Amino acid sequence: MFQVDENYTRVSEFVIVGFPSLQPEYFVLVAWLFFFLYVTTAVGNLLLVVMFTLERSLHEPMYIIMVSLALSDIGFATVALPKLIARYWWNDGSLGFHTCFFQMHMIHYFGSLNSLILLTMALDRYLAICFPLRYPTMMTNQTMAGLTLFCWGIAHIFPGISTINFSLMPFCGPNKIIQAFCTTMSLKSLVCVDTSRQYSLAFAVAMFILYVPLAFIIFSYICIVISVFCCSPQGRMKTFSTCATQGCIISIYYIPRFFVYVTPFIPNLTMTPDKSIATTVFYSLFPPVINPFIYCLRTKEIKQIFRRWLQKRKGHGQIVAVTMSN
């Protein structure tokens, strides 16, 4: 098993350090920034969920995916941000041993889940554009709901392997995590024994769950581009607009992750802790913040629902004003 002194003192808690070079006078400002990101993420994505619940016209496969992504983004922000906010607001970065591993598991879980959701989204667009006549029978609400539940379930398997492996390792100090939250990479340097084998396994699992879906996404987009050349110019522009939006989100999600994961394996390529943390925070928090705005602003049906809600509210306000004047 692990070769370590039997008299070592087991770490009972970890401490989230965050940005190691950040000066204390900026702590409150950073806390407010993360608080704003959390509220924006939660409110924006919750609005999508509420809209889907109230509007039966949105009960279609594409919107089931969007709601799944919204719930995943809310879950990730809720797991990752409160402790980071507390770290800079009240200088409270401590996490219990098992709490840290729970956070690590859930952060990697939502990362894996988002990758599978993006895969499902690409599959849905691929079928809708390349097989438009067969799409209604191939992708029903029941089929999409089943795929979504499958993604939410199987996403636990991949990070679970790393969580179990690392939780069984001896941690005998130090206990300071130079990262914004507990992750496999941040805990790797705190283990008292050689972790090269376990980290290689975790790396392989991460590459599988991230880049196998990405390979299919790229394949589906190539097929979509080939297919839309047969469309009318108007349909071509609409398709490219939809794909460009999703492609932007996918690029933000995958490309920075790739650099963070492969940096330890490339000689003479290093990232300072602050740059590594900033990159992790960017690819982890930026997509959940902008996803609801992108899909609300670029989806025709959702914009129409917003207009109808605003008109109803305006009409209700006029009725109240007339009643009060009488």
UniProtKB/TrEMBL annotation:
Transmembrane segments: 26-50, 62-86, 106-123, 144-161, 199-232, 239-256, 276-297
Protein name (Swiss-Prot/TrEMBL): Olfactory receptor
Organism: Seriola lalandi dorsalis
Protein origin, superkingdom: Eukaryota
Membrane topology: Multi-pass membrane protein
GO MF entries: G protein-coupled receptor activity; olfactory receptor activity
Source lineage: Eukaryota, Metazoa, Chordata, Craniata, Vertebrata
Keyword presence, Transmembrane helix: yes
Compartments where found: Cell membrane
PANTHER family according to UniProt: G-PROTEIN COUPLED RECEPTOR, OLFACTORY RECEPTOR
Domain G-protein coupled receptors family 1 profile: 44-295
One Pfam family per UniProt: 7tm_4
KW Amino-acid biosynthesis (keyword) present: no
Stored PROSITE patterns: G_PROTEIN_RECEP_F1_1, G_PROTEIN_RECEP_F1_2
One GO term describing the cellular component: plasma membrane
Predominant location: membrane
InterPro entries noted in UniProt: GPCR_Rhodpsn (IPR000276), GPCR_Rhodpsn_7TM (IPR017452), Olfact_rcpt (IPR000725), Olfactory_GPCR1 (IPR050939)
Similarity comment text for this entry: Belongs to the G-protein coupled receptor 1 family.
Record key words, sorted: Cell membrane, Disulfide bond, G-protein coupled receptor, Glycoprotein, Membrane, Olfaction, Receptor, Sensory transduction, Transducer, Transmembrane, Transmembrane helix
